[in-house]
Design goal:
Helix content is about 45%, strand content about 15%. The protein is α/β, with parallel strands linked by helices and about 260 residues long. It has a single domain, classed as NAD(P)-binding Rossmann-like Domain (Rossmann fold, 3-Layer(aba) Sandwich). Helix 1 crosses helix 6.
Length: about 260
């Protein structure tokens, strides 16, 4: 039994779907006739986005909250939409944290929140959806976890916690894919690896626009990012990146991919 294809699902739940890359993925999937549910922390934003793009519904969900709160949200989503067969873990935050810098302090509360949103949220959602719902779907399901090139090469040195959380997403996604393959599961596990993309991810920096093209020529627009992501989806790739991220993920796979397969056996 092989996993389903990347775009074979009918109904997707996208965390962080109120804006940025989550909204862009939602728009693309809606164009393809998919049913889309969006989730996030701010109801006003979710409501406005759902109305704007034509999403079927929205859920107020803080992915940094407790397992009990996330479990309750999952239960409600499955009850409302038993046809949900795709989870896209896109929600994430990036905080500049520095042990000695005059511009940024190392705030432990901020770091804890970053870890909760970027690690515990995707972990809880992935495992609970697999165990409580996806494993029971006759036609299979799709999980997409959004990491970052910074999880492969941590060149943005003022984001040590963010970089570490995205390295965790990469490793976690890799191992969940391996576990499901060993169980002959029909659940497809995809890692989406953004490079630097124009967004509000840098909103906590001294210059929140330092990821815009006028300040960083290598940055991709959201449209450029999505064009490559769509190609990855259509080619049924396990790892989907864009722009300069394609070379980074390819190099990682060429360096460690075969060795990982051998050692995992």
């Amino acid at each position: 039994m092989a996993p389903v294809d990347s775009l074979s699902f009918k109904c997707a739940l996208i965390t962080g779907g109120g804006g940025g890359l989550g909204k862009a993925m939602a728009v693309e999937l809606l164009k393809r006739g998919k049913k889309v549910l969006i989730a996030g922390r701010t109801e006003s934003t979710l409501k406005a986005t759902a109305s704007e793009i034509g999403a079927t519904g929205y859920y107020v969900l803080d992915t940094g909250s407790s397992l009990n709160e996330i479990s309750n949200a999952i239960e409600q989503i499955i009850k409302d939409h038993p046809d949900v067969d795709c989870l896209i873990n896109n929600a994430g935050v990036q905080r500049p944290l520095h042990v000695l810098s005059k511009d940024y302090k190392f705030d432990f509360n901020s770091a804890d929140q970053e870890i909760n949103i970027n690690i515990r949220g995707p972990m809880y959602l992935t495992v609970k959806f697999i165990q409580d719902h996806f494993v029971n779907l006759e036609n299979g399901a799709v999980i997409m976890n959004v990491s970052s090139v910074l999880g492969f090469i941590p060149f943005s040195v003022i984001n040590p916690v963010y970089n570490g959380t995205k390295a965790w997403v990469h490793m976690f996604t890799t191992n969940i894919r391996q576990q499901l393959a060993a169980e002959d599961s029909k659940i497809k596990v995809i890692e989406v690896v953004p490079p630097q993309v124009e967004s509000d991810l840098h909103r906590d920096r001294v210059n929140p626009d330092d990821n815009k093209k006028e300040n960083s020529p290598s940055a991709l627009s959201v449209d450029e990012f999505m064009a490559d992501v769509v190609k990855g989806w259509e080619n049924n790739q396990d790892t989907v990146s864009a722009g300069p991220g394609i070379a980074v993920t390819k190099q990682w796979d060429e360096t460690f991919g075969e060795k990982l397969k051998k050692m995992a056996k």
